[in-house]
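Narrative of activities, Objective 1.

The group set out to show that a structural description can be obtained from nothing but a protein's sequence at a throughput compatible with the screening campaign. Below is one input-output pair from the validation batch, recorded exactly as produced.
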Amino acid sequence: MPQGNLLEIWFHESLRQSQAKGYNPAEFIGMRERHRTVGAMERLMASGQIQTGFRRLHRFGMAGEWSIEAGIPRFPTCFTKTARDAAAFGLEHTDDEKLW
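Output recorded for this entry:
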């Protein structure tokens, strides 16, 4: 199965997991509707900021598996090096709350 299809499956599971914890990433869902999944994920990484969704998922203990930052390295061929590097930075600094 192509990486893009697997990414979509992963995204839907990530959304399901988030909603099960009471978090509905409405802003990202809107971005995804406008820019598709990869485009929305790339845009978030380009901002250079730790995202609200990442913070929430971190509080739930889910950032390492279900955040946008966690999805990018799972499907590296779908993303630019810039997005991969930004995602890696976020994941490496998960517990460094002074960056938040």
